[in-house]
Amino acid sequence: MHNHSHSHHHEKNDRIGWAFFLNVTFTIIEFIGGWLTNSTAIMADAVHDLGDSLSIGFTWILSRFSEKEASDKFSYGYRRLTLFGALVNGIVLVIGSIWVLFEAIPRLSNPEMPVVEGMLGLAILGVAVNGYAVFKLKAGETLNEKVLTWHLLEDVLGWVAVLIVSIVLMFIELPILDPLLSIGFTLFILFNVFRNLKSTLVLFLQAAPDKDTQDRIKQALIEFPEVNGIHHMHFWSLDGESHVLTAHLELKDDFEVEDLISLKQDVAAKLSSYHLSHTTIEFEFPQETCRDENEN
Q1: Entry pTM
Q2: Where are the extended beta strands (E) located within 77-193?
Q3: CA–CA dist 121, 116 (Å, integer)
Q4: Does the pLDDT at position 286 exceed 80?
């Protein structure tokens, strides 16, 4: 199980690492290409990609650091750092998208013809490079990788827009198409990023990662004939993948130690299908007062 988990994290870091190096390399190419073609649109994309590169690099470092072993101070380990990374990436992407809108909207009233041949060449390269990065990250399940996939998908769609515009501009002089498409794609990406940001914030605030799963776990625990009720049940997630459960089970009788051991084993077997990272179950006898009754 540990080796499988380690391999999973190693693959995740490889995917993010690939995306980082592809993005950095392509950002450098963009700056050079933007300067050579004298294209403000490509320069704007280059600045946006630079922000993406910094964001992906930050996530890569956090993702590697999050695998460190738990310590006395960080008893659950460092996996919540990946949530923090996803939060930062989402915010960076929102700021970047708003900046793109501020750049594109004024161009609607004063569009300029770019160097079309240079646009076409860079657009083909942009779709290929960012498309490959999206393909590498799409296998990821973490919130971080999903946010990063939207970073790169925004770039792919942006370059598809540049590709379409450059082909159209070869035949028709309609420079307004460029800012129009940029605005459309940016608004589409913003919608999805806000959705991911909401998921990240909810987990960051320790809300239940999945209400249906929480209800099923509660039902499974209360179905035991020895159990009279359940309270102080907390179901939350470290990083969107590793979930934690704590609960107090009220017992119907003063069971013997052997019965309690048997019940513990039954509870463990019942919960095994939920693949919880940390589980703490407390048994309370009928006449016992819950020490946490004044807590939430």
Answers
A1: 0.68
A2: none
A3: 9
A4: yes
